[in-house]
Amino acid sequence: MKQDTHPDYHFITVVMTDGTSYPTRSTYGKEGATLNLDIDPKTHPAWTGGNQQLLDRGGRVSRFNAKFGGFTRK
After folding, report:
1. What is the Cα–Cα distance from 46 to 39, expressed in whole angstroms?
2. Residue 11 and residue 32 in contact, taking contact as beta carbons nearer than 8 Å
């Protein structure tokens, strides 16, 4: 096996957008580096679900419900 093929795996500090931080191991930067997140998994809609609304004006959803509406549980 070749020597020195793996990157240096060390502790860094991750800082969330709300200011909280936690230590983790990573290959990012050097030992003791700080990673400031621009997108926070606590607040970003991709992780929280956001407030998505379904808008349908007689389109696919209405046609689907008309065709398969009898199969829904009541």
Report:
1. 10
2. yes
